[in-house]
Amino acid sequence: MVSALVLAPVPLAAIWFGSPWLLLLVMLAAGVMAWEWARLCHGGSWRNSGAVLVAVVIAAIAVGAAGGVGPGVACAVAGALLVYLLARRWRDGAPRWLAAGAVWVAVPCVLLLWLGRPENAGRVALLWLFAVVWATDIGAYEIGRRVGGPRLAPRWSPSKTWAGLVGGAACAVIVGWATARVVGSVSALPLVLASGGLAIVEQFGDLAESVAKRRFGVKDSSGLIPGHGGLLDRLDGLLAAIPAAALLTLIDGSVPTWR
Questions:
Q1: What is the largest CA-CA distance in the chain?
Q2: β-strands 157-161, 151-153: how paired?
Q3: Digit-coded pLDDT (tens) for 205-242
Q4: Residue 254 clears pLDDT 70, i.e. is over it
Q5: How deeply is 178 buried, as exposed, middle or buried, from its count of CB atoms within 10 A (0-12, 13-18, 19+)?
Q6: What distance in Å separates the CA atoms of residue 140 and residue 206, rounded to the nearest whole number?
């Protein structure tokens, strides 16, 4: 918890001050997550395909920042194919999983930068999104630990419970309601529903990484954050929530205009 409190101001400041700080932070975080994903797919070791994966992810984000979502996503997909082909040629780990990591890390980062533009969603929406994700993680952990009960997916993540899923969603709903009150121009019901839905998506993103860690026999993506594992372990749910938030923005506009 102490590590989380120390790290939280960094993304908040980057979101608040915007370019170029948000771009630099996203590229740094993405590079670390790509490195962690490569290590995860190699059972904790580091191989040549990992360096290609990191380069592909950073390149996709740079292209997305300069040219928009379409070129950024296209670069991520093309880079994933390159990672797959090279990993197969070098007999280097699990090519499909490595390639999936390029898309899994790069595409949400490209979409996050797109959401951060004032004409799309802006910093209000990003602050809301991060608050929803953090509230979901805290609520799911605390309520799941205290209530217990049936496991959500015992084969993949024995510690996750249905109570945690509901508790995380409930905390996200509270964040949605509070955001509507603070912003003022937003109707509460759409934002409450969106927050609850994103909380569920976020938790299944967390579950997806648990599947990968179980597949490769790794407990944490790295030991980078004391007491919390790696950066990917902290941001796996956010990686799932960002595309969902981007889709909502495309459908119904940015958070400050939701009715």
A1: 56
A2: antiparallel
A3: 888 888 888 888 888 788 777 767 789 888 999 999 99
A4: no
A5: middle
A6: 11
pLDDT at residue 6 is higher than 80: no
Per residue in 41-69, pLDDT (tens digit) is 887 777 888 999 999 999 999 999 999 99
What CA–CA distance (Å, rounded) separates 64 from 60? 6
Give CA torsion, residues 233, 236, 238, 241, to 10 deg: -160
Bridge partners, residue 209, by sequence: none
Contact 136, 145 (CB under 8 A): no
Convert the pLDDT of each residue in 82-133 to its tens digit. Answer: 999 999 988 877 899 999 999 999 999 999 999 998 877 788 889 999 999 9
CB half-sphere exposure, 101, CA atoms < 13 A: 36
pLDDT attached to residue 184: 76
Q: What is the DSSP string of the chain?
A: -HHHHHHTHHHHHHHHH-TTHHHHHHHHHHHHHHHHHHHHHTTT---HHHHHHHHHHHHHHHHHHHH-HHHHHHHHHHHHHHHHHHHHHHT-S-HHHHHHHHHHHHHHHHHHHHHTSTTTTHHHHHHHHHHHHHHHHHHHHHHHHHH--SEEETTTEEEEEHHHHHHHHHHHHHHHHHHHHHHSSS-HHHHHHHHHHHHHHHHHHHHHHHHHHHHHT-S-S-S-BTTTB-HHHHHHHHHHHHHHHHHHHHHH--GGG--
- Sketch the domain layout of the chain as residue ranges: 19-115, 120-259
What is the amino acid identity at position 225? I
| Alpha-carbon gap, residue 30 to 25, rounded angstroms | 8
pLDDT of res. 256? 63
- pTM for the model stands at 0.91
